[in-house]
Write a structure and sequence with these properties.
The structure is a single chain. With about 260 residues, this protein is an alpha+beta fold. It is built from five helices and twelve strands. A twelve-stranded antiparallel sheet has the order 5-4-3-2-1-12-11-10-9-8-7-6. The protein starts with 6 loop residues before the first helix and ends with a strand.
Length: about 260
C-alpha cells in the first residue's frame, strides 16, 4: 500500500474544516423556506456533528513494519512536528541536481505538503503555516549532512506576501558513532551537531541546534528503491532534528528507505 499522511498531522486542519462546515450550514439555514427545518434546528444538528467528531475515538496509529516499507515503490520520510506532536509520512517526489553543490530531494504528501532537502539538510517547506521559503546550507558533492560550520541564512515567510531573513553563525561538531534502530533495521551512523547562534542588535542571542545521524558504512542497494540509494552512494542522513523557523519549530525526521 502507499503510505500517506497519518491521522496526527491531519487533525491540524480539523478545526478550520469544522468551522467552515458550520459556517456553510448557518448560511444555508438562513435561506430555508417555509416548511423546511429552522435555523435553530440546523445549528443544533451542526453543533452535534462537530461534537461527535471531536469525541469520536482516534484512529489507531500507523504501525510500520520493515516488510511494509520494503514493498514501497518509493522511499518515505517520517516527519514529526515536535511542538505539536504531529506525525506525517512523505514520499519521494523527485531528486535532481542544480548549479549548487549537492542533491535536492523533494518529498510530498497527498495533501500537497512538501519538504525539500539538499543532501539531507532542510532547505524549504511548502503547504504549511509559516513556511520556510529557502535556506542556505553547507553542502559538498553528495556528502550527506553539513560539510562544515559557518554562516547559515534562512528566508522565512512573514505575513502573506513578505519574507524576512534570519542569519546564523554555526559551529559543526562530530559527536561520534551511534547505532540507530529504525523500524526493525539497525544502522551504524555518525552523530553530527550543528550549533547556530544569531546575535540581533539589542536582543539576546538565539540558539538553534540541528542534529544529523549519517550512515557511517555504505550498504549495497537492493529492492524497489535501488535507484534512490544508488544515486546517493547508499549513504544517507538516516535521522535528523532540524529547525524550520520560529513558526514550525523543530522537525524530527527519519528516512524509512530500505
Amino acid at each position: 500500500m502507499q503510505i500517506t499522511w497519518a491521522f496526527g498531522w491531519a487533525k491540524w486542519a480539523f478545526g478550520r474544516r469544522a468551522a467552515c462546515t458550520l459556517g456553510l450550514v448557518l448560511l444555508a439555514a438562513c435561506a430555508k423556506g417555509p416548511g423546511e427545518p429552522s435555523a435553530e434546528v440546523e445549528l443544533s444538528q451542526a453543533i452535534g456533528q462537530v461534537i461527535r467528531q471531536r469525541l469520536a475515538p482516534k484512529p489507531e496509529p500507523l504501525v510500520l513494519t520493515r516488510a511494509m516499507l520494503d514493498a514501497q515503490a518509493v522511499p518515505h520520510l517520517e516527519v514529526v512536528l515536535e511542538d505539536q506532536e504531529l506525525t506525517g509520512y512523505l514520499g519521494l517526489l523527485l531528486s535532481r541536481r542544480d548549479d549548487l553543490p549537492g542533491e535536492i530531494t523533494h518529498w510530498s504528501a497527498a495533501d500537497g505538503t512538501a519538504l525539500i532537502f539538499r543532501n539531507g539538510m532542510l532547505i524549504a517547506s511548502r503547504g504549511m503555516a509559516d513556511n520556510l521559503l529557502s535556506a542556505e546550507v553547507a553542502a559538498k558533492g553528495l556528502q550527506p549532512g553539513p560539510a562544515h560550520g559557518g554562516q547559515r541564512s534562512y528566508q522565512l515567510r512573514s505575513g502573506d506576501f513578505s519574507a524576512r531573513q534570519v542569519v546564523l553563525a554555526c559551529v559543526l561538531q562530530d559527536l561520534g558513532p551511534a547505532t540507530l534502530e529504525i523500524v526493525e533495521q539497525s544502522y551504524p551512523t555518525r552523530h553530527l551537531q550543528e550549533r547556530c547562534e544569531s546575535q540581533a542588535a539589542g536582543a539576546a542571542p538565539k540558539i538553534v541546534i540541528n542534529e544529523y545521524w549519517i550512515d557511517s558504512q555504505p550498504r549495497p542497494p537492493s529492492g524497489p528503491q535501488t535507484d534512490y540509494l544508488a544515486r546517493h552512494q547508499t549513504r544517507l542522513v538516516r535521522q535528523s532534528r532540524q529547525w524550520a523557523g520560529p513558526g514550525l519549530g523543530y522537525l524530527r525526521i527519519r528516512d524509512l528507505s530500505s
